[in-house]
Specification:
Elements lengths: L10 E4 L7 H5 L5 E6 L3 H4 L2 H11 L3 E5 L8 H14 L3 E6 L1 H13 L6 H7 L11 E6 L11 E6 L4 E6 L7 E4 L9 H19 L7 H23 L4 H14 L14 H13 L3 H16 L5 H12 L6 H18 L16 H8 L13 H11 L1
Parallel strand pairs: 1-8, 2-3, 2-4, 4-5, 5-8
Antiparallel strand pairs: 6-7
This protein binds 5,6-dihydroxy-NADP and zinc ion.
């Protein structure tokens, strides 16, 4: 196991009714808030009113910005930052899914930065310039990205077809409310996409040829089994509290940094390829991942890394036998079937994606160098995976 520093400072308020404690938890960070949300889901569920209530009860004033898109746009980041500067706001409170929380992080950064965050951070990754930001807090309404507990922000720029990520501990939310009842209204489609996204984050950290960090691998298998157990339950019965609660906590644990502590390296190739799909076609992140993942697994599987698939197949899917390649292939098939049973398409053409932008996407995914660690993927490899997934 490699050395690591573990410091995840986000205070989590988990469970039904926790939103009523939000106001007082924000007070140490300020009393002027940008209240950021997406389209209508928080008004329909009544969460909007509850947030207003807890802010008002604690003397916290707020300015609203709504309409954050799935695959949030840089224009919204700029608009939010302007509002923060104009009104002297101190905290960006995101109420919604990963898109809203990611957008809040971009706003928090831009509000305290004189340059252009898109150019300097999302494009050029000049983290040495990241000195200050507003505080970010969140009320999570969709279990998927882990953004409620991590420092990542993924933002899109439609005119150039780019979707780029940044990550910094300085952007982790200071407080996040995780009330599973707010996810009761998540559609089947988004529940499936979220379930795939949680699993994919774990895969990206689990699948490396590295044999160290035994404990982290066992934690990841437990999380995968949990998500495989509860994902279909939430899909079938949206108001199953236990299922929603387990998915919600799995989403946070899946990508808050805990699982990769002590791991020599992690993969992230599937995510980089999916971000190209979302950038060019504005598709749902988890759906893109669900299509790509089994093909990525098939492409990277080799005698050198088969032991990881054997661990996965035996621990997560209980596949019997002794032939390593056979267990590995079955584990990939089980993964594919699981996604299909959640209504995830099997091929890109099912979501109207053809091969016309494959070259461009393969180029975009590898423009900062080869992807991944299970197998180093050059542009030609990414092209091959896209063709397999067509
Ligand atoms: O806009 P509203 O009305 O809120 O509707 C949203 C949106 O249409 C809806 N929704 C959210 N909560 C709901 C609900 N509908 C009914 N009831 C609720 N309780 O769901 C739709 C999708 O929301 P979105 O926030 O886009 O989903 P998700 O949480 O999956 O976030 C996806 C974004 O996060 C990025 C993705 O690339 C994508 O842009 N990611 C962020 C990561 C991170 N910060 O660490 C890592 C991920 O790998 C990912 O890349
Ligand atoms: Zn993801």
């Amino acid at each position: 196991m490699n050395n690591f520093i573990y410091n995840i400072p986000t205070k989590i308020l988990f469970g039904q009714g926790q939103v009523r404690n939000l106001g007082k938890e924000l007070l140490p960070y300020g009393n002027k808030v940008l209240f950021l949300y997406g389209k209508n889901s928080i008004k329909r569920s009544g969460l909007y009113d509850e947030v207003v209530k807890t802010l008002s009860e604690n003397g916290i004033s707020f300015v609203e910005l709504s309409g954050v898109d799935p695959n949030p746009r840089i224009e919204t980041v700029k608009r939010g930052a302007d509002l923060c500067k104009e009104h002297g706001l101190e905290i960006v409170l995101a109420v919604g899914g990963g898109s809203t929380i990611d957008c809040a992080k971009g706003i928090a950064l831009q509000a305290k930065y004189d340059g252009d965050v898109w150019k300097d951070f999302y494009e050029d990754q000049k983290y040495e310039n990241l000195k200050d930001s507003l505080h970010v807090a969140s009320v999570l309404t969709l279990a998927a990205t882990g953004s409620e507990m991590n420092g990542n922000s993924v933002i899109s720029k439609l005119d150039t077809n780019q979707k780029l990520a940044i990550g910094s501990d300085k952007l982790r939310p200071v407080v996040s409310v995780l009330d599973p009842t707010y996810t009761f209204t998540v559609s089947k489609y988004q529940t499936a996409a979220g379930t795939v996204d949680i699993m994919s984050h774990i895969f990206e950290q689990y699948f490396s040829p590295d044999k160290g960090a035994y404990l982290q691998s066992r934690m990841m298998e437990s999380l995968l089994k949990t998500v495989i157990h509860f994902g279909p339950k939430a899909y079938e019965n949206p108001e199953d509290y236990e299922a929603r609660a387990n998915l919600m906590w799995a989403s946070s644990l899946g990508l808050n940094g805990l699982l990769s502590c002590g791991k020599k390296n992690t993969d992230w190739a599937t995510h980089m390829i999916e971000h190209e799909l979302s950038a060019k076609y504005d598709i749902t992140h988890g759906v893109g991942l669900g299509i790509l993942t089994p093909y990525w697994m098939e492409y990277v599987l080799s005698p050198e890394n088969v032991h990881r698939f054997v661990d996965y197949g035996k621990a997560v899917w209980k596949i019997p036998g002794t032939d390593s390649m056979d267990i590995a292939r079955k584990s990939i098939e089980m993964t594919r079937e699981f996604f299909i049973n959640l209504g995830i398409p099997e091929r890109l053409r099912e979501i109207d994606i053809d091969d016309s932008k494959f070259e461009e996407m393969a180029e975009g995914a590898t423009c900062r160098g080869p992807l991944g660690i299970m197998k180093k993927l050059e542009k030609k490899d990414v092209l091959e995976i896209l063709k397999m997934a067509l």
